[in-house]
Amino acid sequence: MGRHVVGNAAELPPGSRKIVTLENRSIGVFNVNGAYYALKNSCPHQAAPLCAGPIKGTNLPSKPGEYRYAREGEIIRCPWHGWEFDLTNGKSLFDPHKCLVKTYEVAVEEVREEQEEPSVETYRVQIEANKVVVYI
């Protein structure tokens, strides 16, 4: 498993997404209410660019004639045929045990900038009694 930095956390506020290509795979990275998730950018139905679809909520089970809309910002809908997937685990809403999208681990880490090493070897120089002295 390769480690890839895809950007600063501040560039991906809650409700946003970023689609990147890592190791020849298109992957969508999402900030869902402050937690980060990554999905393969391909719908299992006909390989549509799933991560480009609208992000919505869904209706929860309820009594006849009653509608309970919830989970706003947690469900992505395929832009081609409307198949819906849970962004938090990649599972389909209609058949979560058989239809799912590949997910990837996401972490927010502090990345330290590496200091550039000098490209040439240097030596300490000092002047002693009008003589230039190099220390190796």
Automatic annotation (TrEMBL):
Residues 4-115 form the Rieske domain. Gene3D superfamilies: Rieske [2Fe-2S] iron-sulphur domain (2.102.10.10). GO terms for molecular function: 2 iron, 2 sulfur cluster binding; metal ion binding; monooxygenase activity; oxidoreductase activity, acting on paired donors, with incorporation or reduction of molecular oxygen. The keyword Secreted does not apply. Keywords: 2Fe-2S, Iron, Iron-sulfur, Metal-binding. Coiled coil: none annotated. Pfam families: Rieske (PF00355). This is Rieske (2Fe-2S) protein. InterPro entries: Rieske_2Fe-2S, Rieske_2Fe-2S_sf.
